[in-house]
Amino acid sequence: MHNCPQAGKWAISVWDGADATETGEALATCGEVTVDFAYYLDPEANGWLGYFEGHADISQLLTLDDMQGIIAHGAMAAPVPTPAPTATPGTAGDVVLVSTNAFTTSSSLRIDGEPRQLTVVGELRNDGPSNRSVGDITIRFYDAANQEVGHRWTWAFDDIIRPGRTTAFEESTPSMLYSGNETNNYPEGWTRYEIELSPADPYEWEDEPVDVAVENVQISDGGHHVTGNVVNNSSKTIPANGATAYAIYYRADGTILNVECDCFLNNSPIPPGGKASFDVPFFLTDEPVDFSSYVVQAYAEAE
């Protein structure tokens, strides 16, 4: 690739190689600078074709021909994540925050021009004798002067946590989805975070969790995809979009590293004994997926 872009800069680059070379393979010859996205003006379609590193599902510029010119962008160097201590919830009751992790990632798909995203993940366990509901999980970020620089709300993957059961949560900022009373920017200068839980008994009108299991679990793409089936082992029908599958990655010391979910995996109801496939994607190429162990779980409710 001739005239490769510098980090954070654009360049008109030209591929000098074999026809039909995969775009990612051609751009990899730029050496130290990663090309995170590129565009080509297709003269036949009279429109732009785009390439986005690590996002083959939305890229249209899949190959390059000899002497084909493109507009290429060099990725910014990813910032070093700021270490943050584990926060102890003040009102956990019988729902325990087992462990938590926070990490910064960078992506070519910017939100409001921001290439960085801060993600907080955590694992919860119900140590009580009865079903519990966590409700809102509050995450607050603070700088070195102990001033709040951002806050987010999220929920556990298990709406209702059965006794002895573990579940997880994940929240990122900035993100495409957020409520009006949340901050939606990268919390500049953050040095620590706190997590607040408010466990309570489930409401009487809430649907009960049903017995589900996972089978045929496979991990591919170096940990970026987890696939399998959710099996309905209950006597009730799980409504459409009522099942969730999620993968929890752990470090060698047993603390949580990362988590993702296929949160609305079934387009159709799952009858008793029925199955539905899932695909849990870890989207970002620099997300931590160098796990030591993992667990894949499913959750569903029915009337």
Low-confidence stretches: 85-92
The description of the largest β-sheet is: 4 strands, antiparallel
Question: Structural class, from secondary structure content?
Answer: mainly beta
What would you call the shape?
globular
Question: What is the helical fraction, as a range of percent?
Answer: under 10%
CATH class of the largest domain: Mainly Beta
Count of domain modules = 3
Tell how many strands the DSSP assignment holds. Answer: 19
Q: If strands are numbered along the chain, what order do they take across the biggest sheet?
A: 1-6-3-4
Can you count the helices?
1
What is the subunit organization of this protein?
Answer: single chain
- Ends: how far apart? 59 Å
Account of the 3D structure:
The chain is mainly β. The chain folds into three domains: 65 residues, no CATH class; 102 residues, Immunoglobulin-like; 95 residues, Immunoglobulin-like (Sandwich), CATH 2.60.40. It is built from one helix and 19 strands. It has a four-stranded antiparallel sheet. The chain has a four-stranded antiparallel sheet with strand order 13-19-16-17, with no helix packed on it. A hairpin with a 2-residue loop joins strand 7 and strand 8. The protein is globular, with a radius of gyration of 22 Å. The relative contact order is 0.14.
